[in-house]
Amino acid sequence: MKDFNEFQSNTHLNEDMNKFVLNFKKYYREGKLMSFKNWIKVMDELLDDLG
What pTM did the predictor assign? Predict the structure, then answer.
């Protein structure tokens, strides 16, 4: 099991998190009303950015 320092020093995770945040902000700023089905599709894409 990784300790916190090993987990935090993983730059790949940081890059994925930055990509997630940028894409999330893009959707948030659009202010577009979505159905639940569309929102799930967007969240699926965003979560794919993390992993």
Answer: 0.61
